[in-house]
Amino acid sequence: MSLEDKIKAVAKDVEGRLQSAAGQISGDKPMQAEGEAKQVQAHLMDAAGNLKDKVQQAAASVGEVIDGLTGKDS
Length: 74
Known about the structure:
Blueprint: H1 3-26, H2 29-70
Helix pairs in contact: 1-2
């Protein structure tokens, strides 16, 4: 996950927390729910970034194994 993507996810989470808290304090249930939804979105952004990283690592490992089997690593 790139640093930029991580920052976007953290910013979305903070935005959601603030909006949820404001909704809770003011008694505005839709605002609170929207803030909670933004927090979920932030967690999904983070999870998607982590998954992307894992897939890239796995692809690189498979490439190394194939190179080793075909003699392209020397």
